Records
---
Amino acid sequence: MIKKVTVIGSGVMGHGIAQVYALAGYPVRMYDLKDEFLQKAMELVRSNLSLLVQEDVITEQQKAAAIELIVPTTDLEEAVQDADFITEAIPELLELKWELFSNLEKFAKPEAIIASNTSTFPISRLIEKATTPERMLITHFFNPAQLVPLVEIVKHDNVAQETVQVTKDLMSEIGKTPVVLNKDVPGFIANRLQAAIVREAFYLLKEGVADARDIDRAITDGPGFRWSFIGPIETADFGGLDVWKRVVENLAPELDESKGAPEVIEELFAQGKLGTKTGEGIYKYDNVSVQDKIRERDENFIRLAKIKNKL
């Protein structure tokens, strides 16, 4: 039974994951290397929770209770020694993760489950040097972790089935939608589907078929509108498999088959234009606060989650 959890890493994903556990009533130890990292993370948690209060998702009392349940620490052994479930959310560097897992196996209880939030590495690579792989798997949250319901659970041949079931139950209990992969494939499910769309979107942009704003609108007000409730496979059923057979046969030869990053992304990357984090990417953010854009995004996500009964 899971009673206490630990989140390793307090960055973009870690602070949101810690918040989710705390809102569900779990005592959380949040570990990072420096106090300033943890202070910033707690500021973000407070801001996130204030937004949930503003949108009538939680009360001020629930906000205060959640904050009280998160204990920041720079002591790894202290962070994990009593944990029943540990979520790793550190940078995507394999050697760094191997080193961390080695320490977790040393400091954590033998029965503690160790889950990685990686979006890059297959579980087979992560457990290569593990001595207790039967308690390790992947729980891939989506950014922003405190709002997006999906969590992909990636297992491997040596993981205990009880570990998978306990993890799935925990994700459901904290309000997430867990999906379990039967095979360990790069990119898992959602990122593979997302990458296919992004590749084609940038191809259309490069070819001048439409501008960026209209390409984005074609998704948000088209397929994306229905995908929030009906996925692509069920969409095919609704449309008729005879129809989709012809659609794929006709379109497949015309689709982009690039194997690398889109040219537009490569060019902007070389110029240091990385998107909201630098003030310019495909779009320019000169006249609007990036924080305002993030807040607007989160407000919209909250309202959608309410409609879907996911908050």
Note: The first strand starts at residue 5 and ends at 8.
---
Amino acid sequence: RVVGGVNAPAGAWPWTVSIQNPWGKGTGHFCGGSLIHSQWVLTAGHCPSAPHLPSRRLPWFRVVVGANQLTLTGPEVQVRYTTRALLHQSYFNVTDYDIALLELDRPVECNQYVQVACVPHPTDVVVSQLRDCYIAGWGHTTARTHGSDVLQEAKVRLIDGRLCNSYEYYRGKLHSYNLCAGYAQGGIDACQGDSGGPLVCRAAHDNFFWLVGVTSWGAGCGRAHRPGVYTSTQHFYYWMLEQMR
């Protein structure tokens, strides 16, 4: 969930997908993801390995692309199913190498509501210098509620990694491949059900967004000095290329 967010306009984040358990209650939404190729979705490692999913049914997830409201999908929405879930080989729990790729049964067609995100090459951009950052997801809107039916978006700030790993914040739990985003005072953050979804940032001189992070974990939702933790896409750029070959 995005805590402290607002309803996103339709088509605002056209690479954002809903990953669903076809056997789950309601829409079955349990994680977000980002389209990085017409047939591949980037998400968090803990999404396809979530304990509530019946393992024998892996990796049969439903992936809903181009949606804004999950219970009211129009002709712009495309539905695919996954054929493979590729977790990082060093993935451990939510804290280590929390990244995965899902292969779709057939490519999506790009249009106004469905587009592929730009993943920054290690030399394309200095992520720490990006200012205009956003998260989006259908997750919980407060720590103890349920998911949102309409896609939520929120503006967040990147927080310096050393500060985020300091005693006042996460006390050394972060890795070099993690990013922190949110606000020192809390209030705006990702939450349950937003995992795997995008953290995107825009450079001052650019009009387009870079997909810089995958929503990974945090302590609670929107708490002071406990910002959201994201897996850096730039760090895993070559890993992604290798998997999608």
Note: The longest strand covers residues 78-87.
---
Amino acid sequence: MTSAIRTPDGTRHAGVLGVGSYRPHRIVTNAEICERIDSSDEWIRTRSGIVSRRWAGPEETVAAMSVAAAGKALAAAGIQADQLGCVLVATVSHLSQTPAAAPIIATELGAQGVAAFDISAACAGFCYGLELARSMVSSGTATYVLVVGVERLSDLTDPEDRSTAFLFGDGAGAAVVGPADEPGIGPVVWGSDGAQAEVIRQKETWDDAVSDGDFPHLVMQGNPVFRWASYEMAKVAQQALDRAGVAAQDLDAFIPHQANNRITDAMVKALKLPGHVVIARDIAEQGNTSAASIPLALDRLLAASEVRSGDIALVIGFGAGLVYAAQVIRIP
């Protein structure tokens, strides 16, 4: 006897309902970074746009920062943790191979028993999470989904590597995705380029690190990454606008992954964004926080009243893999 398989009811619109962030207490200046490398505050500012970054203390763990950011996002969305259907955590710096961070974070929030898993998509991880959350809500698999982007990249930074010591910071950002009256998250444009996997990576595997006693810090080939991000990612961003049916002049904000101000400038120019579009520059005080950078930047823009609820923003993440994802969202 053949029986039909039941599926979730229909489709519905999904949107971002609330965001929150957590920034570690310790502020690390360029001057402090330059105590370990041959560089200067002026050079770092000119090449990256970074003035300072936040580094987490011993108690500011991946889970602790995530719970703090998530609590603010839940409050902003007006829901309780036990209403969540899934918790997604985008990170590359939860250094325990298993268990994942997401189930621990879900339980600490009070969402015991919900689906929970980590996403390893580097600096594109938050945008990957947004698409997964949108799909879950739209299909009826979950009513509310929490997406967290969190990093402790200071744990993976070589303080004596002149090319990366000044780049990375720590922090967490979170967003609640749920039902919306109109589309609040546009079609995603995402992909990867494994042929360039070597340009951003850990310098060796954990197994090799155990054998030779050297820590597998992050290493990066700056010039190839800059060229790829500056030119190829503008094309991806334009595709996201096209798929959402949104023109550049209709945008209120552009919130790219906070990798480097020069990369952001190149994309702004390539996209021909008009002057009224607010450009996120959170990197100046936060550094590159990988999966956390987009929600951190969005929350700062909201806190500073540079954007308002209902505004339209283009978000794009890109990084190690190489991987990328972009979509248009309505700001909660």
Note: The chain has a mean pLDDT of 94.
